[in-house]
């Protein structure tokens, strides 16, 4: 690759001072191709340096003094300039996949060679992804999979089966809880016979057996307000 007109500005984020020292010497030894613009050893420093310096590439350890750096990835990427290469000892594959899903362009183990680290910084700076094939496969599968809709709540299914007229009847029963069927039928503008037919259907759909159970069910599930 040709030498950059400006060196690639790199922010190093790791809570191990020895690692920061080694990476700094490695990257600064590559000038003018790239240089370290700052180092950080915690999440707060990483975010502050990113906001003030807008580094081209952030080399990020995921475990920062017991805090997971996944949580700050959106802030590190919010300037639309910085790109993230994760360099970590993390072995949990799901965590590494999440880093990519949240925007990291590269993932490397801490046992990677110096050449591999330098190559990853340069490739990510040029817009490439630096991921192994299995990681790419899992991430693409996650991004393209059709999410199954959550199973419907059985009570919601029962309530959705009520017709608009039956909802009106339920509301009438709740608001006239002590009234006779004849009175309720008048309030619902139906005959008493039709009211009884509606109530039978409602009982079957909601799994109740009488007006008292219907009243308790309707109040519990706020059905007295469903008719509007």
From TrEMBL:
Transmembrane region positions?
Answer: none
Recite the UniProt keywords alphabetically: DNA-binding, Phosphoprotein
What are the BP-aspect GO terms?
Answer: phosphorelay signal transduction system; regulation of DNA-templated transcription
Superkingdom of the organism of origin? Bacteria
InterPro entries in alphabetical order = CheY-like_superfamily (IPR011006), NreC/VraR/RcsB-like_REC (IPR058245), Sig_transdc_resp-reg_C-effctor (IPR016032), Sig_transdc_resp-reg_receiver (IPR001789), Tscrpt_reg_LuxR_C (IPR000792), WalR-like (IPR039420)
- Which one Pfam family would you cite for this protein? Response_reg
Q: Which GO terms describe its molecular function?
A: DNA binding
What protein name does the entry list? DNA-binding response regulator
Q: Which organism is it from?
A: Variovorax boronicumulans
